[in-house]
Amino acid sequence: MDDPAKIDEPTALAVEVSSLYERGDYERAVTVAERALEAAEQVAGPDSLYVAGALADLAALHEARGVYATAAPLYRRALAIREKALPSGHPDVALSLGSLARIEGALGRHAEAEALLRAELALLVKTSGPDGLEVAAALDRLAGECSAQGRYDEPESLYHRARQIREGALGPEHPRVTLSLDRLADLAAARGDRAEARALHEQLLRVREKTLGSDHPDVAFTLSRLALLYDAEADYAASGSLHRRALSIREQTLGSDHPDVASSLRDLGRSLVAQGGREAAKPLYERTLAIQESALGPHHPELAATLAESAAIHRAEGEYLLAEPLYERALSIRETALGPDHPTLAPVLAELADLYYLRDLRDEAETLYRRSLSVQEGSAEADDPRVALTLNGLAVLLSVQGRYDEAEPLYERALSIQESVLGDDHPDVATTLGNQAVMYDSQGRYAQAEPLHRRALAIRELTLGPDHPYVGTSLENLAEAYRAQGRLAEALALYERALVIEEQTVGAGSPELVASLENLATLYRESDRREEADAFEERARALRLAER
Question: How many separate domains does the chain show?
Answer without folding.
Answer: 1
